[in-house]
Amino acid sequence: MHQQAIQLYRKGAEANQSDPYRQGNVIVLPEKGRVIVAGDLHGHRRHFEKIVNYADLENHPETHVIFQEIIHGGPEDNYGGCLSYRLLQDVIGYKLLYPGQVHILLGNHDTAVINEGTVMKNGRELNLAMQDAMKREYKEYFGPVHQAMVYYLLSQPLAVRTPNKIWISHSLPADPYVDTFDISIFERPYTVEDTQRPNPVYLLTWGRRQSPQALQKMAQRLDVDLFVLGHQPQDEGWAIVGDNTIILASEHSHGCLLTFELGRFYNIEMLSEGVVPLASLL
Predict the structure, then answer these.
(1) Residue 141 and residue 137: Cα distance in Å, rounded?
(2) Helix, strand, coil in percent for the chain, rounding step 5
């Protein structure tokens, strides 16, 4: 079982690195097709299954599905251990089935795993809870499996750019860092050090509560019109910030996804018409 997990993480990393649409650390999507974006999943298997059914990639080869923040949350083992790593493995398997259509973005919880940091959610430290569950499953092989997981997480792209000037990433730098944020991180290979405070991958994935002014400035710096982000909890599953940003959440009963076409341009109101409550899907 541990060998299968290690092999899966390694193959997943290879698929991320060889994604046909990857340029540096950004997935640059083609001129035509449909995009489905999930917000944070945090172990919510049923919503993952709904997204897979909704996308129906086997019959829609021009559809692209974007995932983020898969780990930390959801089912637990008998000792309270977090089993979300199993959902991560299933999402990686989905990527391997459709390597040019499934894209999994790096999030802040991923950087916490990379750096063995503390992640508090609902009063629990989930990084340790996930490690404990992995230790019970993999026993003496926990070390190599965890190392393979970290190797995989470091292969994930940072963002998606579309031809109709929509930018999708887990988050963006907080207001104080917008002017000095090193956008070259999207072009060069990133390292473990880049995922640590106060370096650019850390700032990108951990930033919260950006003002409309900061979002406009980041749009100018990245040459895009609209942002689709996760990271910030949304009780209703989504929200609009300013006039250029949608924030999605997919990890609870009010969770949503967003769908849009690559072949047309949008303003924020038009884009928001593509928000779909996951509760409405089979």
Answers:
(1) 9
(2) 40, 20, 40
